[in-house]
Amino acid sequence: MEHPCETAKRLSPDHHRLPQVVRWDDATGSVVILDQTRLPSDLVYRTCVDVQQVWHAIYELAVRGAPAIGIAAAYGVCVAARASLDTVRDRALRATHLLATSRPTAVNLFWALDQMRDVIDKTTADRDLFAALLAQAQAIHQQDRELCAAIGRLGAMRLGQERRLVERGDEPVTILTHCNAGALATGGQGTALSPIYELHGQGRVIRVIADETRPLLQGARLTAWELHHMGVPVTVITDSMAGWIMRLGQVDAVIVGADRIAANGDTANKIGTYSLALLARHHHIPFFVAAPHSTFDMKLLSGDLIPIEQRAADEVRFVFGRLTTPVDCDVLNPAFDVTPAELITAIITDRGVIESPSLSTVAAIIGDR
Ligand code: MRU
Q1: In this structure, how many other beta carbons lie within 10 angstroms of the beta carbon of residue 356?
Q2: In angstroms, rounded to a whole number, what is the distance separating the alpha carbons of residues 253 and 236?
Q3: What residues form DSSP beta bridges with 35?
Q4: Which of 82, 106, 152, 247 sits most deeply, having the most CB atoms within 10 A of its CB?
Q5: What is the pLDDT of residues 138-177, one digit of tens each?
Q6: Phi and psi of 98, rounded to 5°?
Q7: Does 231 have pLDDT greater than 50?
Q8: Burial state string for 199-235 with b = 16 or more CB within 10 A and e = fewer than 16
Q9: Are residues 159 and 128 in contact, defined by beta-carbon separation less than 8 angstroms?
């Protein structure tokens, strides 16, 4: 079924180039969002002409991944501001409040909305406000491209120095990832996948194992799709296979993204990340997190304070429209978990690599963000 604000446009992506996840369309004053709920079978865009549609796109995971959520929200404020000059300030402000309720865990959403609020406060003339907001949203978008590129460069260097990878010599290396922290989740070439693209571009033979990532299958549907299009060999496993694959010696490193990182390095990411970190520790496999500085929440001293999104039970009960549990069966559906810093080998950021994350090592690289 097509969404009401969807352009029924189906395109086939160029090989080695991915479609843009979110963009501003000047002609219609709308935010155009690649609908990730429809991937990998359909390449369909939603054209959001009001802020409610942007809210729904974020809530329903049409646009998802911490940095992309922040970018979409920033453009969402512009959609609201564009409607009428006399109410521009009020509409923009209300849009920031509404969008802040869409998803609670990814801190990039609040980071982007704070910047949009700053613009509202500092732009005194109403007639200048829309242009100032759009410029800020575009700056957030462009900055994210640059942050992803920096993470790619620093991450490729760091991974290249890792003992297990060095020992492989010219042999292929295998990196396991969870959920999707690639181009589909950001304004650029991703966070966790960015060092992989970088190494692949340098000619290093990399094979990626993508956890399918229940319940919404971001690994199988999105990570596998984007790596495949980019020409990086990828193998999908179900989440429960990871431990056994590690035991067989088939994983050289794990790298994941993040939705929010506390000041001590505790990291919230897609549910299942914590179990992977425990498995990696048991098997002496390095476990990396890759994230821009915008994903750090330096106000939170530990991961216990990170709000965890609880999603609808039916996301677990149904698999692609088919009931897979008894109708009224109790289920749990936390969308994220928190991996304690002590299980993380290093956090790769755009500002540098944080080895053995802790309050002091995080502050040394991130400052107060
Ligand atoms: O629920 P999602 O698909 O938005 O969850 C996404 C993740 O957990 C990603 O790993 C995280 O946002 C980092 S994206 C660069």
Answers
A1: 13
A2: 16
A3: none
A4: 106
A5: 999 999 999 999 999 999 999 999 999 999 998 999 999 9
A6: -65, -50
A7: yes
A8: bbeeebebbbbbbbbbbbbbbbbbbbbbbebbebebe
A9: no
Rounded CA-CA distance 128/196 in Å is: 42
pLDDT in tens, 183-227: 999 999 999 999 999 999 999 999 999 999 999 999 999 999 999
Position 203: which residue type? G
Burial of residue 248 (CB within 10 Å: 0-12, 13-18, 19+) is exposed
Helices marked H in 123-254: 126-161, 163-168, 193-201, 224-229, 242-247
The pLDDT of residue 17 is 76
pTM of the model: 0.95
10 Å CB burial of residue 180 (0-12, 13-18, 19+) is buried
The reported pLDDT for the residue numbered 4 is 47
Provide the token pair at 220. 């199988």
For residue 221, give the DSSP letter: I
51-59 helix and 88-99 helix, angle to the nearest 10 degrees: 10
> Could you tell me the distance, in angstroms and rounded to a whole number, from the CA of residue 128 to the centre of ligand 1?
34
Give residues (CB < 6 A) around ligand 1: 61, 64-67, 106, 179, 181, 185-186, 191, 218, 257-259, 269-270, 335
Cβ neighbours of 332 (radius 10 Å): 8
Give strand ranges (E) for the chain.
6-7, 22-25, 30-34, 45-48, 173-177, 206-211, 234-237, 253-256, 260-262, 267-270, 287-290, 296-297, 318-319, 322-323, 336-339, 346-349, 352-355
Query: Is the four-CA dihedral 31, 296, 163, 212 of positive or negative sign?
Result: negative
Residues 6+ apart with CB under 8 A from 269: 178, 179, 256, 257, 258, 259, 289, 336, 337, 339
Cα of 61 from ligand 1 centre, angstroms: 10
